[in-house]
Amino acid sequence: MAEREHEHVRVAVIGSGFGGLGAAVRLRRQGITDFVVLERADSVGGTWRDNSYPGCACDVPSHLYSFSFAPNPEWPRNFSGQPHIRAYLEKVTDTFGLRPHIRFNAEVRSARWNTDELYWEIETAQGALTADMVVSATGPLSDPQIPDVPGLDGFQGKVFHSARWDHDYDLRGKRVAMIGTGASAIQIVPAIQPTVDKLTVFQRTPPWVMPRADRKITRAEHWLHTKVPATRALRRQLLWSIRELQVSAFTKRPKELGLVQALAKAHMHRAVKDPALRARLTPDYTIGCKRILLSNSYYPALAQPNVDVVASGLKEVRGNTLVATDGTETEVDAIIFGTGFHVTDMPIAERVTGAHGTTLAEEWKDGMEALRGSSAAGFPNFLTIIGPNTGLGNSSMILIIEAQLNYMIDYLRQLDVLGGRIALDARPSAVHAWSAAIQQRMERTVWKTGGCDSWYLDANGRNTTVWPGTTAEFRKVTRQVDLAEYEVLRTQPGKVTEDAGTTVEAVA
Ligand SMILES: Cc1cc2nc3c(=O)[nH]c(=O)nc-3n(C[C@H](O)[C@H](O)[C@H](O)COP(=O)(O)OP(=O)(O)OC[C@H]3O[C@@H](n4cnc5c(N)ncnc54)[C@H](O)[C@@H]3O)c2cc1C
């Protein structure tokens, strides 16, 4: 093969959140140093860099929402806040010597599979390179979604998304609209309610909210977790086990969630005395159908005199007046969108072109699917971290990420064992069979039977985001790459093509 004139790496990782940084650590631990991490921003952290809104914190206890290989005995609270999680990721980056691998301000603009050379051609904001393998860790909740509301362009006040908080804008004394009542909104509302003059919450669908068992982690606990690491491991194990035991209620026996629903109702009754407000805040679907939210301060904030809950979505903006679908009109100075992210239409999918000349977005136009949550057919040597049907409703996404990283390492090992210039392409039959089995399991889940419309569902009403099992099961099914599920592609120097001097043939 002719000597390459461009930079080539073995692995190009896209993104430097938990997924990308985790991939980098695992690669280095495997002795693989020929890789880069391409990050569009100017620092690491992903979710925990971009979401700096007041009150931002994780919903899963920190001792579980962290890497198994990088325990942190110093977590300040059960549910640590965004600054601490971001600092943790910065520390992981330094501790594991990842900085030399990271290219900041290097947004990936396109990645195209070269079928002759069996590598990815990647265009970034910092130039081009090629890679044997791409690990896409661009995050499912990374690109904010602002609905296309008629008249929004004419609004004279301040507008921003929760994931792009404008810290220069002073909310004191302002009339503010919070659009949406999802996981971010319910953290923002109690954080800003005491500051603003008036807060109007536009609620299309009320969430079920449970108490949040948050507290400071004591000095004694810190000491114990530092001096006796087994106690830290035990704590993680307990947190994990409790969540594993909850899974079957979500996936097989939604009726068992009745008791949880009663607890959530009692939680609301304790804080909201006004029956009319309670009626507006009571969901009409089974708990768990949409993500269960945790907060001790959301309902008390909604009960404050400077807060209004409009039980309707935002339909239109007329000047500085917001018009809800139910006709309610509210004049505001600022609009904060807590309207989520492009989850089932990931922007990176439009930028990745596979072996058949089509983009991942085109392949996924009827719904995302990927073998074991990682490999799409026609996209050789391309793995998605937190790909289709890998999301969790009740536990830590870091468990899923680490399982997928096991798969990545085994994938690279299999390429090594097979030897030569080689690629693995998921067989369409294997991908469809995997996806069909998941969809069949989905039928009994609360996400399907619970009577709600959620961001877990795509435009066709299919749940292509959530994993319908335990994390232990996911770990098991991603432990090893099953070569029978892949076509093995090789360049064959003996067979010369017109321009590349190589041809590609399926050999398995
Ligand atoms: C507010 C909030 C709270 C959350 N709380 C929890 C929780 O409590 N528990 C839980 O399990 N999960 C939670 N999540 C989900 C969370 O997203 C995941 O747990 C995890 O952080 C995802 O990590 P990631 O690396 O896959 O993605 P991200 O953290 O989103 O990182 C993706 C990175 O890719 C970069 N990127 C994207 N596109 C490109 C491109 N084209 N080129 C180069 N770089 C690119 C982005 O800049 C970003 O740095 C929360 C999410 C949000 C938004």
TrEMBL record:
Which EC numbers characterise this protein's activity in its record? 1.14.13.-
Please name the top-level EC class of this enzyme: oxidoreductase
| Gene Ontology molecular function: any one | monooxygenase activity
**SUPFAM superfamilies tied to this protein:** FAD/NAD(P)-binding domain
InterPro entries to which the protein is assigned, alphabetical: FAD-bind_Monooxygenase_sf, FAD/NAD-bd_sf, Flavin_mOase-like
Identify the domain of life. Answer: Bacteria
> Is Cytoplasm there in the keyword field?
no
Q: Reply yes or no: does the keyword Flavoprotein apply.
A: yes
Q: Which UniProt keywords apply?
A: FAD, Flavoprotein, Monooxygenase, Oxidoreductase
Q: Which family does it belong to?
A: Belongs to the FAD-binding monooxygenase family.
The identity of this protein, by name, is Flavin-containing monooxygenase
Q: Which species does the entry assign this protein to?
A: Streptomyces ochraceiscleroticus
